[in-house]
């Protein structure tokens, strides 16, 4: 009999559980009534679990194909319960990194740990914590949605009821006996997300989860990601939809040409790059006097004129000074918009050739 | 190895393949042709011992069609899933590569054995209706040996499915292997044999005694091993072999031939696991 201390992902209450190695325990948190399952690790793997605040830890990951280095000395950590966005242009090494996280490819050097468990030496144990949605979602075409999900559910110890519930939740309840081979791309994508969240994994790895989805599908997936975060799930997500990443992620990592060039919060990266907000002022009429008045202000990085519009890049705190300078120069402001530096600005700067 | 993982994968393979229209088509063709051969063969016979030619015909037909079914089942089992993308999801689960290969093999083996059982089973029923004293045990042994033979081709296909990096190449490889074992190797071996024999000294009645190297070479073709095994094990086929056949050497025993077939299965199964363990997905 082995005992294990676990923490409730919702209220962080510490619960002691006991059972045989490999045994699946169904439990309810006595404090917040959150329901969940836990598998007692076997003796061999139990010794490999280290106390670690990082759920995913990658150190010095390098992977080459022939003479091409797809990922070069990449290191990052994803903390428990956070959403980490992983960005990069096409061919930057995102999918290679994700495949290494799942031990789908054999890295040349480096270590990857999932909840402190080395993925290379204890892959089977480490993967118990992971739910994964690949970029190219694929199922067994001759089987129905439920048959497909039941297959994965059996391996992940998820019940038939949970599979049915997820199929309903992802709007596939009416597919019945229709084979997955006849599904639309969006339907397959939604079923892919259902598979990833099957059995409530503590870690979700999502590679382009919104690709090929209609706006309703995008919202469905985003809401599910946020719901999983509320449950305490650690989420690693790669996406090309930067606005979405900015909206949901706590931190981001940017990979370019196989090198992780940045990792921080969006605000942190903006500060590092000294990115400033852009103020767009629409005037009744434009004059050289107004333009010069703004240009002379300290803290103003650039001023562009487009008809009756002024695009000013300056420190965030300069907004009032800019307005004052314009009105003092005889300008009559009709409209004023402020755009904070976006993830897109950060991304473009870090990945520029 | 976790049995629930292996059984889940095996179960999925069975469900997936019994819905595959190509597998159904070839299996149906096999059953119908076997039925035709067994029906017309058994019409003209009065007892089990007269069925030699019929069982020989079924064996010939089986070696052609069962190798096709086995290759069709196995050639894309690994590379097909990698190419489609479902292997990534499968490997992201708490399932290791060994369990995946074992599960897939067991599932496909079940589908293959079921095909053989249906094909030869129906033929057996037809024979039983037309022939009075059928030796069911020998007929079951015949079905069993055919299953082992089918598994040889399945493991060969499984291995090549881990070798190729494209499904289309794997299909080409499977077609080549089918021709290799069914046509090329027998022609090459007989060709080599012909170069060493002085036909001018032979009469119509004399039996062709092949040198040992020819029999050793034949052990490298599972189709030859299977045919020899049927001839030496199944009574009616044994009694129907005439002077046209090259007699088997004394060191060809049922045990040796079975050992060779099982070695094919074991070696290619180990190679498949070894190759898949090292493959980047």
Structural notes for this entry:
The complex is a heterodimer of chains A (353) and B (281). Helices cover 30% and strands 31% of the residues of chain A. By secondary structure, chain A is α+β, with helices and mostly antiparallel strands. Chain A has three domains: 2-40, no CATH class; 54-264, P-loop containing nucleotide triphosphate hydrolases (Rossmann fold), CATH 3.40.50.300; 272-350, Alpha-Beta Plaits (2-Layer Sandwich), CATH 3.30.70. Chain A has a six-stranded mixed beta sheet with strand order 10-11-12-7-13-14, sandwiched between helices. A four-stranded antiparallel beta sheet of chain A has the order 6-5-8-9. In chain A, a hairpin with a 2-residue loop joins strand 8 and strand 9 (117-118). The longest helix of chain A has 16 residues, at 215-230. Chain A is elongated and about 80 Å long. The N and C termini of chain A lie far apart (58 Å). Chain B is an all-alpha fold and 281 residues long. Chain B has one domain. Helices cover 77% and strands 0% of the residues of chain B. The radius of gyration of chain B is 20 Å and the shape is globular. The two termini of chain B are 21 Å apart. The chains are: A alpha+beta (353), B mainly alpha (281). Chains A and B meet through helix 3 and helix 4 of A and helix 1 and helix 5 of B.
